[in-house]
# Entry
Amino acid sequence: MTKRELLKAIREELDARRMYSLDGISANCTKAELQNALDCLRATDEQMADCLTVIKLAYPNIHRTITQSDYLQHSHNRLYVYNTARQVLA
# Structure
């Protein structure tokens, strides 16, 4: 996919989730960053709950802070949970 197609797919997923944007994701990002953001947005709520469980085990204080908001709709926390869980499992 081209960057333009990735940005369009991200915009469609954001609209489907009723989100305005993902923090740090823009047209200036690399294709890998855009693909990662798209994968994050396409992750189901169950997959995101699994990612949150990984964070709970590794970082309990961060887990407590994140669960105080609706992290699935939050522009920063959703991507943070997704990336941090991937990093812990790697």
In short: The two ends are 26 Å apart (CA to CA).
